[in-house]
Amino acid sequence: MDAAPDSPLIAPPDPPLPQPARRPRWWFHLAILGLYPPVLGLIGWLTRGEGGPLLAGAAAGLAVGCLWELSIFGLVFGLALLASRATASELYLAKRVRWTCVPLGFAYSLGIRVLLGVVVLFAVGVVTAVGGLTVERIGMFFQEHRPKVEALVSVSALRDDPIYLALALTVVSFGLGGLREELWRAGMLAGFRALWPERFASTRGQLVAVVLAAIVFGLGHAPQGPMASAFAGVLGVALGGILVFHRSIWPAVFAHGFFDATSLVLIPWAMSQLHTLEKMIKP
Question: What is the DSSP letter of 178?
Fold first, then answer.
């Protein structure tokens, strides 16, 4: 039996290319979306250490923070769409959400976590072989440059406040993380494809655009440290590849949401392990 036309397992044809007359509009679209992550990263960098985590350490503060972040993105994304008048097909939104996106997204999230683990092990192996670093030196480097998750969420609230945790696993993971960031990524790819169709209209070209968008995406995570920026870049490449392969935003949205949710669940345990490691490597 043939799969349904809008099945997430079947990639539909490439979306139609935009009309040349819309080119100036697409410049504004790409510029405002491209500036969004770096500007957020710069603001986070300038205000780091002030007033606790970005998503406040209480359930009410978390809800307000999510509403604020979504409102800002809605304004930016709305201005971009008002300028470019991008269609649902151009944003990979033409296919409706199907229940199969849920298990598919979960499977993708596991694969991405394995990919990140392989990247980390490879990097550690190269540094150890080339630089001759000891385990203690590597541990000290990781401790110094690790992702500053406490700049984003309250670790104690994740551990002790079930309402905060529930909001983090739903609104933060699938709203701020999944939907917001994959809409942004789809908008970036549409902009690249519209302005330089000869380079980015093909599947190979779209994958190149995915890498460029991932670099910008990584810059937005600068307040959490260079390692977080690198991880975000790798994550962006993986999620962008999913988006391009399926020509649909929804498998990537669920993959991103599940990845963020499992990460948030693991944060309290990971932080306790880091504290133990810090005690072991201190002289």
Answer: I
